[in-house]
């Protein structure tokens, strides 16, 4: 049952095609990396379609006219270490002036609770729309903790962008952070007993960095 989930699925054919290639176990690190970069760029294109525009007066080589430009809304990109790093370059290609912060979380093996081990953010985080990126939204534990951390640091407007999500993780964020809009390319079936998304694509960090 996924009808209760609050999430937007980016079903663009190019995104879906590239995601299928990423899922395939025979896809190696080089292709996986390139595909993640390309999909991230395509997803960034979709999630920025409501960015505010203003009219400016310009001269083309032919005539003076009024034309649209971004109104200079401040944005921030926050990859969750380490797999989130694989989504950075594609998004930066589309939004080259975006500021980048980093959040590192690990799961304490005793308490199973997420623990922050690194956090470095743009200083004016409260004034920015933050795009938090991590390819896999599994249990949602680290994601929800990272979002709480960003709010503690003053963040007021956050968007969460992932590639593949499990219903369990979406539910966790919906419950803990109902104000945060989540985008994904796919809602998969479930988590397995090891916390992997099924069918998923395996360990995104390992496939991205070749640490299999
Ligand atoms: N993290 C991953 O990289 N893959 C999963 O399936 C779940 C969490």
From TrEMBL:
Residues 9-211 form the Phosphoribosyltransferase domain. Uracil binds at residues 197, 202-204. Allosterically activated by GTP. GO terms for molecular function: uracil phosphoribosyltransferase activity. Keywords: Allosteric enzyme, Glycosyltransferase, GTP-binding, Magnesium, Nucleotide-binding, Transferase. Binds 1 Mg(2+) ion per subunit. The magnesium is bound as Mg-PRPP. Pathway: Pyrimidine metabolism; UMP biosynthesis via salvage pathway; UMP from uracil: step 1/1. Its cofactor is Mg(2+). Catalyzes the conversion of uracil and 5-phospho-alpha-D-ribose 1-diphosphate (PRPP) to UMP and diphosphate. This is Uracil phosphoribosyltransferase. The gene is upp.
């Amino acid at each position: 049952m996924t009808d209760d989930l609050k999430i937007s699925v980016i079903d663009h054919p190019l995104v879906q095609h590239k995601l299928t290639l990423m899922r395939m176990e025979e896809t190696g690190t080089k292709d996986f990396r390139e595909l993640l970069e390309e999909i991230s760029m395509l997803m960034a294109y979709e999630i920025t379609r409501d960015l505010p525009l203003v009219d400016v007066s310009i001269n083309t080589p032919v005539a003076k006219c009024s034309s649209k430009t971004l109104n200079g809304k401040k944005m921030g990109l926050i990859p969750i270490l380490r797999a989130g790093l694989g989504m950075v370059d594609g998004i930066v290609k589309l939004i080259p002036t975006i500021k980048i912060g980093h959040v590192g979380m690990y799961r304490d093996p005793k308490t199973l609770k997420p623990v922050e081990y690194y956090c470095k953010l743009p200083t004016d985080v409260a004034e920015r729309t933050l795009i938090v990126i991590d390819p896999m939204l599994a249990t949602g534990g680290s994601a929800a903790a990272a979002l709480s951390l960003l709010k503690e640091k003053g963040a007021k407007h956050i968007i969460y962008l992932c590639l593949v999500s499990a219903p369990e993780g979406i539910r966790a964020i919906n419950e803990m952070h109902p104000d945060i809009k989540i985008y994904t390319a796919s809602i998969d079936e479930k988590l397995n007993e090891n916390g992997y998304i099924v069918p998923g694509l395996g360990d995104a960090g390992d496939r991205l960095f070749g640490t299999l």
